Amino acid sequence: MRREYNATVAGFAGKSAASSAIVSNLSSSELYSSALMLVCFMPMECEPNIMPLMMHWLTIGRRLLLPAFDRERKCYALAEVQGFDERYLTKGKYGILEPREEIPRQQPPFSFSAPAIWLVPGLAFTRTGQRLGRGGGFYDRLLEGASGMKIGVCFDCQLAESLPVTRQDMTMDYILTESCITQCSSN
């Protein structure tokens, strides 16, 4: 399944326009306007480009947290950033930009006092909130301690009727695509 969805996204020619629509759908939603903290992912080339959303978030003075690999614990933690230049980000474990090691990290579980939304990447999602990740379980372990709304972010072509899940797989509260934001039917 992972190969199939990787190939689907690789062949999707409308990534740029779809990414813009995804950003627009979320930024015009009540979920976005009511949150004070945003936990995001740094998009890889095959994922929706949510960078404009994160830039806007910082511009309006709200808190932005990104995953950062903790080499000692061999898992992801969160670190707050105020920008996207070399003062804040460096290439991480998988070649993805992540917060620099000197930025303090928070380990799960997270209990944020401010309303938070989590934007979660995945290879595929169902409308019931199931998620197919890249296979390492890193994001599921990070999400175990999540407080706030979990929003799966993908292109419409990554929506699946069903996915194989285990009890460790975290379920999303919403799915965000270029066509809509959908509250997951199981939640």
**Class by SSE composition:** alpha/beta
Number of strands: 12
* CATH top-level class: Alpha Beta
Element-level helix/strand string = HHHEHEEEEEEEEHEEE
Residue windows where pLDDT falls under 50 for at least 5 positions: none
Whole-number count of domains: 1
CATH level 4 superfamily: NagB/RpiA/CoA transferase-like
Largest sheet: 8 strands, mixed
Distance between the termini: 25 Å
What's the CATH architecture name? 3-Layer(aba) Sandwich
CATH fold node name: Rossmann fold
User: What value does the average pLDDT take?
Assistant: 92
Describe the fold and architecture.
The chain is α/β, with parallel strands linked by helices. The protein has one domain (2-183): Rossmann fold. It is built from 5 helices and 12 strands. The chain has helices spanning 2-10, 15-27, 30-34, 51-59, 138-143, and strands spanning 37-39, 63-70, 75-81, 89-91, 97-99, 105-106, 116-120, 124-125, 131-132, 149-153, 174-176, 181-183. A hairpin with a 5-residue loop joins β4 (89-91) and β5 (97-99). It is globular, with a radius of gyration of 15 Å. The model has no long low-confidence stretch (mean pLDDT 92).
Outline:
The chain is built from 5 helices and 12 strands.
